[in-house]
Design brief:
The chain starts with a helix and ends with a helix. 46% of the residues lie in helices and 12% in strands. It contains 9 helices and 9 strands. It is α/β, with parallel strands linked by helices.
Length: 282
Amino acid sequence: MKNISKSIFISIFPVIALYFMIDSVIHLINHGISYRYIGRLLIAISIVSFFSLLFLKPIARTDANLKAYTLPIGIGFMTSLIFGGIIENDLNGSLPSVVLFFAWVLYIKWYSKFEDRKSNIHIVVGKSLPEFILEDIEKNKVHISKFIGNPSILLFYRGNWCPLCMAQIKEIAAQYKELEKRNVNIIFISPQPHSHTKSLSKKFDLNFNFLVDNGNKVAKQLDLFSKNGLPMGFQTLGYDSDTVLPTVIITDASGKIIFADLTDNYRVRPEPETFLKILDAN
């Protein structure tokens, strides 16, 4: 139930912010200066800008509290509440700003975070990566043990729909020459349909392994499963409602785990330089 609530929330929150942004602009044009609407506009435009830039200019990570956006949102909230609600004596008119502000807090403190993942007993540094079976883009079975003999970077990503995942893959691609020098297997794993994975693989003319975790079998095996993790409505693009938690695993040539990033915030991910340091240290 919790993940369904998150799925619905992330689909309607940016839309509501967009509505209030447009409504505020129209009101200010038609009725002149109003602190209630100036504050509301500042909040709404900050929210809309954040989500728009995620897709227009994808980034692989953010800081946990999104300080660059939270500051103007806080200023807009105080402007609407104090100058609009108290000085202009219209607290009801400041209610949309209150709703937007607390929805932003929910996005940061609730939606963005996963349950505690430190208790994962399957992915532990120093232990061997468990054996599991995936599929390539042609639906051929691929045993993960086939990559033993060289170090490997395994990136579990949610799908082509996730802008942070796509930016993270692009970052790794930019490090390809350095990784190739170290004879590293690059393995990207997602539960998305084979057609989407095949489309993604065509974008990179590099020796990467784009694999599919059909039915999230491996995600469940490794305790990386995210039930109803897809934003509501994205099912129309061919994705399943269930997905995987963003995860990076690095193994040495023997298959032993030497690094694992089980982030508890989908926007907080390791820098690509970290991978090279880990590989060089082992």
